[in-house]
Amino acid sequence: MARIVMKFGGTSMAGSERIRRVAQIVRSQADAGHEVAVVVSAMAGETDRLVNFCREANPLYDPAEYDVVVASGEQVTSGLLALTLQALGAKARSWLGWQMPIHTDKAYAKARIGNIDAEALIASMQSGEIAVIPGFQGLSDENRITTLGRGGSDTSAVAIAAAVKADRCDIYTDVDGVYTTDPRIVARARKLKAVTYEEMLELASVGAKVLQTRSVGLAMKEGVKVQVLSSFTDENAPNADSIPGTMIVSDEELEKMELENEIVERQLITGIAHDKNEAKLTLTRVPDLPGAVSNIFAPLADAAINVDMIIQNVGRDKGETDVTFTVPQADLVRCTSILENAREKIGFNRLISDTKVAKISVVGVGMKSHAGVASTMFTSLADRKINIQAISTSEIKVSVLIDEDETELAVRVLHTAYGLDAE
Amino acid sequence: MARIVMKFGGTSMAGSERIRRVAQIVRSQADAGHEVAVVVSAMAGETDRLVNFCREANPLYDPAEYDVVVASGEQVTSGLLALTLQALGAKARSWLGWQMPIHTDKAYAKARIGNIDAEALIASMQSGEIAVIPGFQGLSDENRITTLGRGGSDTSAVAIAAAVKADRCDIYTDVDGVYTTDPRIVARARKLKAVTYEEMLELASVGAKVLQTRSVGLAMKEGVKVQVLSSFTDENAPNADSIPGTMIVSDEELEKMELENEIVERQLITGIAHDKNEAKLTLTRVPDLPGAVSNIFAPLADAAINVDMIIQNVGRDKGETDVTFTVPQADLVRCTSILENAREKIGFNRLISDTKVAKISVVGVGMKSHAGVASTMFTSLADRKINIQAISTSEIKVSVLIDEDETELAVRVLHTAYGLDAE
Fold first, then answer.
1. Does residue B71 sit in the same domain as residue B220?
2. ipTM of the modeled complex
3. Is residue B315 scored above 70 in pLDDT?
4. Pick from A222, A251, A266: which residue ends a domain?
5. Which segments of B are annotated as binding site for ATP?
6. In angstroms, rounded to a whole number, what is the distance separating the alpha carbons of residues A207 and A185?
7. CA contacts within 13 A on the Cβ side of A295
8. Residue B109: its chain A contacts at CB < 8 A?
């Protein structure tokens, strides 16, 4: 018997028929003797509809009132799931964010969860009642509804799992787990039985859109075992003895799973991610002086623009250098305008931007203890004449920037090179 | 300067454009220096949509979870109206039922309002902030959302007006006031400047669908001055000096208004209502014995069927009598089945039902001090050969049951007979 938090997204909650399917999955867990809490999103499309009403009402909307409006979507689905579970003969009730309450700060529309008063919730779960909890919402100390920002329901689920000390947090999505790479690009991509929090963070932030990054960070901080699995396959009645999806756990937990033969020994590299949403900027003939680079990046930091890869080339002329870096494509226009305004202070010659680039990353905790991971990457890409425009590395990741047209080729080449192809 | 509670129904809140219109009406009151609270319904059609979801989830739905779902409609419109008011430059915020809170009993889906903690609300109104309050909802002492039953927003508005000691509760509807009779039947019907609570209760319960009956009863109990007016005409910026709609007040208040020439002297009869939703039942040859009538009406009372007009005729045979009464048409099938089951105990011969009847009522506090009102009614109808099938009276009302086909004729004849026709 375990205590489990389950989370279902908007696609799973879109309409009575799908809610009934979710209720069946939830009840199978309760029937197996587990204590169950379920966190739900709004019906697919509903939050967009509500956000649109807010924009029509007031383009510069007050986030506190925006939260009153948009939090209603999850309120509706939590009531409906409780009703549907009751129709299946289960004991169930909804617990709204303000009822529990889920305390948050008062950054309306992008609140962060603080303390959760879970005593009554735990008592209810222990009595065999399924708790249905709207995701995405909480209560500020001004006694007003807050929301966590789009996609916040994953974070709600992890926070509740931490608060009730759940054995596991199962996130049901429209994919059935985390893969070694995008299966649409590499047909032989394999579903991973387990990844570490750190790996998941790198995979999520570089384009493997399975879980909200924030929720993974919280799971790592709180030590919550997270499982990603599909609500649409037949394998959706997991129990403590099988892992139908992908477990996201700590390094130590992963080692324990290996020792207990729950998962096979890990590869050096866990997965390969790609991201086409970066833009490359190059400033030519910047003075090669102390403080020159700071003149470029300080105003971008002030504007909260997230600069990723940075390289500084030796220029053709002495005392000058070219500086290249990447920013999210969405920030490109703003970034360009900030740099043009600072042209005199920075003292560059030309500003060249390029959105036809892709970032390819190989991720794996294994590389901490193995040399040669980067070298394999560079060699494999060079063999296929793929030109590397920039490089960045972290403890468990190596990323390269390449021409966008070569994305699929690069991912396939690397997937094979690191021995990730399925048999 | 006054303290005003305004209430807008679902038609007025249906979509961004109409909400903007409502916001303009509300702001004009705030601009006039009044302290303003606004009670809103869900967008027209939204509550039906949510109720339908509940039925799909669970035909025998748990009313506590039903309330979680359906209360969201008003939550959305209250947030949107606050945002729209802010867009017009007004200070505004929403106050949800659980926030204030509006305490109710725990009869989910049909809760009754108890105490309202209005201190923070009053302080906010006094600071010049417009309070936007979702109608129809409250909080039980189990800390769960309750709703008041369909049409409950009128009651919310009156209860809040009582709690904040408002000078007036303005109910904006899709009619512009209470008329002497249905203007679709009598073109020369006049809008009434004022009616008493008692008159309004009689007019509402017999078919003049302007206000929820429950809200009028509460207004009478709490002494809240209610005004019914339209949100669609140009006359919708009332102030303390004019009465664009119809005031619903106490007897004493009405006399004061007459003395102060705010309204012209009242007619003997205030209005004429009709109701085609009654059914007539006749049980023939019931034993004329003590307890016989009780054998008929006790089981109907147990089934909460509201019996209205009752007449007992002397039967053709000695020791037997015919009993005729009316019930709402919606209850007719249930009523018939209950009576058939009790046939032996009651001992009747035939059970005859007729839905082709209409109840016509003349209402007016003036009849308390004047004889001859009923007599005028009977004579006027007899002159037109309209047959009276049953009669019932109260202190301020005389009702007759007639053939449904003669409804319009009877209303017109009586409107003229009592001198109500507009010049």
1. yes
2. 0.83
3. no
4. A266
5. 7-10, 173-174, 179, 184, 209-210
6. 13
7. 18
8. none
